[in-house]
């Protein structure tokens, strides 16, 4: 099992849809309750501060996170939500 510090996360845009200028995007990692390190895309509204709603989005089985469900996450982040896309 890889530890978070051993992961090589890309910083360039790796999605199949255009990047929105209305949101900030970053790769994040976290360890679940089973000790498995997961990688997610975090979308935040640009220039937002303070507390605001957040949701986690995941694609259906067989989905590729760089495709449609990531676009949904980005679009929701444009409406002042924090979105963690798994």
TrEMBL record:
<dbReference type="InterPro" id="IPR051411">
    <property type="entry name" value="Polyketide_trans_af380"/>
</dbReference>
<protein>
    <recommendedName>
        <fullName>Alpha/beta hydrolase</fullName>
    </recommendedName>
</protein>
<dbReference type="InterPro" id="IPR029058">
    <property type="entry name" value="AB_hydrolase_fold"/>
</dbReference>
